[in-house]
C-alpha cells in the first residue's frame, strides 16, 4: 500500500521536475543568432599557357579508372591517380585525387574531365 502511494506521488513529481527543468534550460539558455551569409571571392584564373618542365630524369602519368557503361555515371572517372616516375633516383610517387573534389566551374573533377577532356 505504501509502495503504491509512493509511486503515485513520486512518479508524477519526478516527471514534473524533469519536464520543468528541461523547459527552464531551453528558455533560459542563449539561442543561436541568425546565421550570416558568407561570400567567397571568385578565384582569379591563372595566366597560361604553361610549358611543361623538360627533364629526362622524371615523367608523370595520369591514371584514370571508370566503372564502365551500363549504369548511371558509368563514364565518370572513379579513380584519378597521378604517377610521378623518377628514373634517375629510381623512385615512384603516387597521388590520388578525390573524385568528388570541386574545381573551377562548379563541377566535381570527375565530371570536369568527362566534359572538357584532359587537354
From TrEMBL:
It comes from Candidatus Woesebacteria bacterium GW2011_GWB1_41_10. The keyword Cell wall biogenesis/degradation does not apply. The chain crosses the membrane at residues 6-26. Keywords: Membrane, Transmembrane, Transmembrane helix. Residues 77-110 form the Cell envelope-related transcriptional attenuator domain. Residues 34-53 are annotated as: Disordered. It comes from the Bacteria. Belongs to the LytR/CpsA/Psr (LCP) family. The keyword Nucleotide-binding does not apply. This is Cell envelope-related transcriptional attenuator.
Amino acid at each position: 500500500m505504501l509502495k503504491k502511494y509512493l509511486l503515485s506521488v513520486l512518479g508524477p513529481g519526478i516527471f514534473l521536475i524533469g519536464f520543468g527543468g528541461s523547459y527552464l534550460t531551453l528558455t533560459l539558455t542563449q539561442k543561436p543568432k541568425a546565421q550570416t551569409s558568407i561570400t567567397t571571392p571568385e578565384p582569379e584564373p591563372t595566366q597560361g599557357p604553361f610549358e611543361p618542365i623538360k627533364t629526362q630524369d622524371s615523367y608523370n602519368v595520369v591514371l584514370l579508372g571508370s566503372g564502365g557503361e551500363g549504369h548511371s555515371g558509368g563514364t565518370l572517372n572513379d579513380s584519378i591517380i597521378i604517377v610521378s616516375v623518377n628514373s634517375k633516383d629510381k623512385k615512384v610517387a603516387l597521388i590520388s585525387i578525390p573524385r568528388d573534389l570541386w574545381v573551377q566551374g562548379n563541377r566535381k573533377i570527375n565530371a570536369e574531365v568527362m566534359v572538357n577532356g584532359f587537354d
